[in-house]
């Protein structure tokens, strides 16, 4: 458990930012060091080239000095010595012999004891005289007095650039991750129903925010539908239970009345059958069984759908008519079809004071038209609550459901259309 918390703490945005800046700093320092070392070596090499040219330029002076006063060696400058016999060369220079003729030979150029030798020959009084011009590579200064200053300035410049890079990286990371931090804080707020980010946020995070808002709205909608569904299921189960309980109590009041007893038993049986159908349908919905993938169909006729059961709640003056197309077969089981029609017709009856309610049933289309008040802001929610079970059943069995105004009768049209596979 402790390990999990430690890993979580290490992966928060602040620590990720520190690690990112640290890595950028290491990369910047390493890169700067490589560049600095490369340029330093290049400068040293160029300095050696200048020294070699400087050494070669004293060839003529050395020959003139010898012709004026022949000697084994002579200092032609404070830093350059000319030797006219290899036997008189210093021991450290002798160890590196032989030297290429008419070329400058570099020995240990990057070392403090490095030196250069230019070897050639010239004629003096008809004799060929060898000439060795020597110089220590570190005794001649070409601005070396400022070398420490150059190193210091280069180091400070490198550190300054690393600092600028670190600050820039931190600001860029903060700008990039601030919307994520903002969203994370909003997610911790359980009461928040909408997430927002600034306009300057990158498009991907805006898209993520839009999806979060969509999921939040979907969650709220699903929760509301589940509550409505639970309320409806409770009503559908409580009603037959109340009928059964009432009929049983009435039976006990008139035990000698045979006709009365038979009537109550019939009420109990009908209520039990209705409750059984309701339970089976609700369980089918809860299990999310997709009947749209099944090829089984059920024949439908007027005997299968008693119009009297659908119209018994209709107000006086409201006529309920059922029209079934010939050879109609549906992918709905009959109990499901009855419950769908019952809910739609009950909603139509609720908002129809006079006129008619017409039910059309065909193989791929079912409609219920009424002459009621139609849809409005006032009764839109009531329609939705009553028809929630219809929508759920249609989704399970592969049908679509739509409720809209009937422009011809000022009522509503509830349409069920079978979805094509």
From TrEMBL:
Cited InterPro entries: HATPase_C_sf, HATPase_dom, His_kinase_dom, HisK_dim/P_dom, HisK_dim/P_sf, TCS_sensor_his_kinase
Residues annotated as domain Histidine kinase: 232-421
Catalysed reactions, semicolon-separated: ATP + protein L-histidine = ADP + protein N-phospho-L-histidine
The UniProt record lists the keyword Phosphoprotein: yes
EC code(s) of this entry: 2.7.13.3
GO cellular component, one term: plasma membrane
UniProt entry keywords in alphabetical sequence: Kinase, Membrane, Phosphoprotein, Transferase, Transmembrane, Transmembrane helix
Gene3D superfamilies: 1.10.287.130, Histidine kinase-like ATPase, C-terminal domain (3.30.565.10)
Transmembrane segments: 20-39, 149-167
The protein's name in its UniProt record: histidine kinase
Native organism: Vibrio amylolyticus
Lineage, opening ranks: Bacteria, Pseudomonadati, Pseudomonadota, Gammaproteobacteria, Vibrionales
């Amino acid at each position: 458990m402790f390990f999990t918390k430690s890993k979580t703490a290490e992966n928060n945005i602040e620590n990720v930012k520190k690690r990112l800046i640290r890595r950028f700093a290491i990369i910047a320092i390493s890169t700067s060091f490589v560049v600095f070392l490369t340029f330093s070596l290049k400068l040293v090499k160029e300095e050696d080239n200048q020294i070699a040219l400087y050494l070669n330029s004293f060839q003529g002076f050395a020959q003139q000095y010898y012709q004026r006063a022949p000697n084994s060696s002579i200092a032609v400058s404070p830093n350059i010595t000319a030797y006219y016999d290899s036997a008189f060369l210093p021991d450290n220079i002798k160890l590196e012999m032989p030297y290429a003729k008419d070329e400058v030979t570099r020995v240990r150029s990057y070392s403090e004891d490095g030196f250069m030798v230019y070897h050639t020959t010239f004629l003096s009084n008809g004799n060929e005289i060898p000439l060795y011009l020597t110089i220590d590579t570190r005794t001649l200064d070409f601005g070396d007095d400022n070398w420490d200053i150059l190193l210091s300035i280069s180091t400070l410049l490198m550190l300054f650039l690393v600092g600028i890079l670190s600050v820039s990286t931190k600001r860029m990371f903060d700008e990039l991750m601030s919307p994520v931090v903002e969203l994370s804080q909003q997610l911790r707020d359980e009461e928040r129903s909408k997430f927002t980010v600034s306009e300057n946020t990158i498009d991907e995070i805006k898209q993520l925010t839009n999806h979060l808002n969509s999921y939040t709205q979907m969650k709220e909608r699903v929760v509301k539908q589940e509550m409505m569904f639970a309320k409806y299921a409770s009503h559908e189960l409580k009603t037959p239970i109340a009928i059964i309980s009432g009929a049983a109590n009435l039976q006990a009041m008139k035990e000698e009345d045979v006709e009365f007893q038979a009537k109550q038993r019939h009420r109990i049986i009908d209520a039990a059958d209705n409750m059984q159908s309701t339970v089976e349908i609700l369980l089918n919905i809860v299990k999310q069984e997709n009947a749209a993938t099944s090829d089984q169909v059920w024949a439908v006729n007027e005997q299968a759908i008693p119009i009297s059961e659908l119209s018994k709640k209709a107000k006086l003056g409201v006529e309920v008519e059922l029209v079934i197309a010939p050879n109609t077969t549906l992918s709905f089981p009959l109990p499901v079809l009855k419950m769908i029609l019952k809910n739609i017709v009950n909603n139509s009856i609720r908002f129809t004071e006079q006129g008619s309610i017409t039910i059309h049933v065909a193989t791929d289309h079912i409609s219920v038209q009424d002459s009621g008040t139609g849809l409005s802001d006032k009764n839109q929610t009531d329609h939705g609550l009553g028809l929630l079970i219809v929508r759920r059943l249609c989704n399970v069995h592969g049908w679509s459901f739509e409720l809209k105004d009937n422009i011809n009768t000022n009522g509503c049209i509830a349409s069920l259309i079978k979805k094509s596979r």
